[in-house]
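In the laboratory, one determines a bound structure by crystallizing the protein with its ligand and collecting diffraction data. In a computational setting the workflow is compressed into a single prediction: the sequence and the ligand go in, and a structural description comes out. We illustrate the idea with copper (II) ion.
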Amino acid sequence: MKKIFTTLLFTLAIFSMANAAFELKRTVFVGQNAQGAAANAFNSNNLVCFVGDTVEFKWFSGQQHFVGAVGGPWPVADVMVVSGFTFTAQNTTYQFVIPTAGTYSYTCFTHAGMSGAFNATVNPASVKTTPTFSVELKSFPNPAKENLNVAFNSNSSTKGQFEVYDIQGRAVIKEEIEIIPGANIYSLSVVTLNSGLYFMEVYQDGKKIGVKKFAKN
Ligand SMILES: [Cu+2]
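The predicted complex, in structure-token form:
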């Protein structure tokens, strides 16, 4: 029992680490130069980071620094934008989670020439890739007599389903398919269908990814 619990904890820890790996906290020391010494400067004053990261401004030295944003896509509601933020020994940190890509400039209004920026881009590792169909769904011949050929492109290998509905919305055909990366062509037998209009829906992993209207002769 204890072993199972330990394994579970370990698994949870790994899982949270994997999630946290995309978002980092980066510190900008207020009142420190690039060499780490006390100065009317920010360290770093040219931070490179990712959307979702937390930038923490942390007081390092100097009596008082009144810091505010001067450019970039800062949210208006942000305290550092609206009123500036005062860094003193007692009031040491200010945190900001980067909401969107761009270059965020900031300055210390107390000390001329004390300024910096951080440039945020979207971390490619955090972008979840969802399978997409790069080519429009095609069906032919239209009207169909015995077989309806369905063609589309996919970038992944997954399970899929064809569903055909009549004009009253009744399901008349359901067929499981295996979707492969690249060009997919399926021949669907429609010989049992009455003449009329139908809608063919294609599902990938339970999600509808295409609809095509066709006629049966
Ligand atoms: Cu300052």
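The two ends are 65 Å apart (CA to CA). Keep in mind that any predicted model is a hypothesis to be tested, not a measurement.
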